């Protein structure tokens, strides 16, 4: 029972998430030899102010 978690900034449409879920599930079935009905894809939208890279919140402007 594989669980694939995808964390990303908000803004993707329902259609985009559906397509991602479809192709990720297909890849898991093909490569990991699991079944589609036992593959779970979980999307979690994370606000930019809750995400940091290089010690800087993604909601803050970056210096060049």
The helix/strand class is alpha+beta
| DSSP helix fraction | 25-40%
Can you tell me the overall shape?
elongated
Number of strands: 4
Report the C-alpha radius of gyration, rounded: 15 Å
Overall average pLDDT: 95
Q: Order of strands across the biggest sheet?
A: 1-2
Cα separation of the termini: 44 Å
Secondary-structure element order, N to C: EHEEE
Low-confidence stretches: none
Which band does the percent of strand residues land in?
A: 25-35%
Total of helices: 1
- Quick one: biggest sheet? 2 strands, parallel
Assembly level? single chain
Give a short overview:
This protein is 30% helix and 25% strand.
Give a description of the structure:
The protein has 64 residues and is of the alpha+beta class. The chain has a domain at 1-39. It is built from 1 helix and 4 strands; from the N terminus they run E-H-E-E-E. The chain has one helix spanning 14-32, and strands spanning 3-8, 40-45, 52-53, 56-57. A two-stranded parallel ribbon has the order 1-2. A two-stranded antiparallel sheet has the order 3-4. Strand 1 (3-8), helix 1 (14-32) and strand 2 (40-45) form a beta-alpha-beta unit. The protein is elongated, with a radius of gyration of 15 Å. The model has no long low-confidence stretch (mean pLDDT 95).
């Amino acid at each position: 029972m594989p669980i694939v978690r995808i964390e990303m900034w908000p803004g993707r449409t329902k259609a985009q998430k559906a397509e991602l879920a479809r192709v990720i599930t297909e890849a898991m079935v093909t490569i990991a030899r699991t079944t589609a009905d036992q593959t779970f894809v979980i999307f979690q939208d994370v606000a930019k102010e809750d995400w940091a890279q290089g010690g800087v919140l993604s909601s803050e402007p970056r210096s060049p």
